[in-house]
Every structure is written in C-alpha cells, then in structure tokens.
C-alpha cells in the first residue's frame, strides 16, 4: 500500500528533525537529525505516554504505513523522540497533543529504560495520563485508535504486530503498579 504525499512530506520533515543524542548512560551528547541517528546506530531519547480513560482502559492505536520504524504496527503509547533542547516531560506533553489531540492533562512519570535493537536505540521515559476527552488523531501518524484493557494489549501482541518498545514501556508501568 502506497503512502500519501502528505505522509511522505511528514516523513521527510520528521527525518530531518534534530533529536536529543545521548550515550548508553543517558548523558546528553548534543543533537542530530533523526535519520542520521538511526543510520549511524546512535542512541536518542524517546517518550511513551500511556493514555487511559477514567474506566482504566488503555488507548491503543495503529501507526501509519509511512512511519520509519514499525509502520502499520499497533502501539500502546503515544510518544516519540525527544527534540534537541527539549526535556522528557516537554516531549511527552507535545507528543500526546500531536498524536492524539490530548492536552492540559497531568502526566505522571513511571520510570525510564534503555531499549536497544538494531535501528532503534533509545533511552525511554514512561508517562501515564487519564483523559475522557475525545481523541483527535494526527492523520500522518495514526490510522485508528481504540480503548482496551492493558492486559488485552499484551495478549493481542502475541498474534498481532505491536511496537516492542512501547510494550516494554507498558510492562514497566504494570510492574511498578503490581
């Protein structure tokens, strides 16, 4: 399936964005274009925002086919790369608003982890938020969204393509609450 011109333009702009570049201990080294960070196998910073409704259901969404990493996969978290000069918290608020249209909600951090697979090396901060506001999906990044029980997402991931980095974020969140 081909991507739209709008998605292609969004992908090109995304690849050029300057991202926080860090070492294996999450020490800031500077900023690099997203595509260069990936191509060179360097480490960036990322945020994962688990959005729940007041009934405790988790928002899962399907990524567009234009995404550089995990295109078309289901994702349990809004989020993305931390921009150069941006904090984890600033990135989390920005990404939640951009991808799902949710702003002005309390974001609670639930830990950090290092995710390291070829083509996707990240220091990750995990946040959670609760909102019953209507979702406004970013068409360049999100195809569809729905709310399900967190455990259902983990079960679905056994048979459907889910983003492994955000699944790790969900597992960290659930383990801390157990």
UniProtKB/TrEMBL annotation:
Keywords: Hydrolase, Magnesium, Metal-binding. Mg(2+) binds at residues 95, 99. Residues 42-171 form the Nudix hydrolase domain. One of its GO terms (molecular function) is metal ion binding. Pfam families: NUDIX (PF00293). Its cofactor is Mg(2+). Belongs to the Nudix hydrolase family. This is NUDIX hydrolase.
